[in-house]
Amino acid sequence: MGMNNTPGGERIHISFFGKRNAGKSSVLNAVTGQELAVVSNVKGTTTDPVVKAMELLPLGPVTMIDTPGIDDEGELGSLRVKKSYQILNKTDVAVLVVDAAAGFGPEDAALLKKIQEKGIPCVIAWNKADLSGGEQLETGKQPIPIVKVSAATGQGIHELKECLARLGRQEENERRIIGDLLSPGDFVVLVVPIDKAAPKGRLILPQQQTIRDILEAEAVSVVVKETGLAAALAQLGKKPRLVVTDSQAFKKVSADTPEDILLTSFSILFARYKGELEPMVRGVKVLDEIKEGDKILVCEGCTHHRQCDDIGTVKLPRWIREYTGVSPEFVFTSGTEFPDELSGYRLIVHCGGCMLNAREMRYRLQCAADQGIPMTNYGMTIAYTQGILKRSLEPFEELKEIL
């Protein structure tokens, strides 16, 4: 039971790509040792991505994804190919299955180029190797490991598994939440309203994680409610390096924090930690160019929070109309719906994504980027339309030229 409790977002996603009849499903089944995917001699049996959770030792829990053939013909076919390409945005490790008899074709080369552009670790499974001699593949970029396999005889399957485990061991997240902004002994004041989100007796996770990172930086955290901030600043006797606040209290905290003290919010620290800050700041600036009738997509990550719904469907559109002075057309989606086709939109405004894992948010950002559509989030939009975003981004050198 334990393994199936590992949330999908925490698992490493391994996707199998290749032309129809290259034997993707057979290789996948050989790797997993279980019949997960339909296998038949008819070309193009897999018409939709097949997703399966399993344990792959020594890597641990993984999600295996079998995709439609990348050489599918016809109208339906091109839809399926598009789906395969979108799966790339959810992929941590890619397996390109090539039929040794047919050799490496233009579709394989095109897909490989996409995989390398996205920086996804990849291995080529040279399948049906019992039938012919494999070759070495030299690509322009870093050489890609090739493993000769035969789903029929089991040849090379163990080696392929070891290769997947090696590629799947992700390097530890280099990013810090706040520690890289601090020196040992610095004071950081955290403003935490405790009336709303936190269960009694607890802090919410982002607050805990921030405190932990401050401790690791050998710095000092002082935690106050928004009503106690002014008094705390007066008593500290030393200027804090940074004040970090919950976004909902930003207005009051900004008023109580002297201009010469850097101020930011938890949501901005976490957008930076997850690699979303820069694209979302670029995205929010598009509000300055919105024209009458432009379409704005508002995405709610969860379906059950009425309060977020209210922000997404009522308050945000109102603030955007007030800020831009025009009336854009708003389209709303919630939960797991995220449209494949984004080209009609001028801007996407997404919720903070607390109910979506980091991979799903990265996927959505990547899909938007692939189609050239700017994306931002609720917190940034609120801060920008209320004129407080600039101040909250001051601690981050790397954003100077965008602002």
Care to give the gist of this entry?
By secondary structure, this protein is an alpha/beta fold.
Structural features, described:
The chain is 33% helix and 18% strand. The chain is built from 13 helices and 14 strands. Helix 7 (250-256) links the parallel strand 9 and strand 10 (263-265). The protein is globular. The model has no long low-confidence stretch (mean pLDDT 83).
Features:
single chain; 403 residues; alpha/beta; four-stranded parallel beta sheet; 18% strand; P-loop_NTPase
Number of strands: 14
Compute the CA-based radius of gyration.
25 Å
Order of secondary-structure elements: EHEEHEHEEHEHEHEHEHHEHEEHEHH
Beta-strand percentage? 15-25%
SSE class:
alpha/beta
Distance between the termini: 49 Å
Ranges where pLDDT stays below 50 over 5 or more residues in a row are none
Per DSSP, the total helix count is: 13
What is the overall shape? globular
Biggest sheet descriptor? 6 strands, mixed
Calculate the mean pLDDT score and round it: 83
Pfam family, one: HydF_tetramer
Domain Hydrogen maturase F tetramerization: 280-395
Keywords: GTP-binding, Nucleotide-binding
Domain Hydrogen maturase F dimerization: 177-275
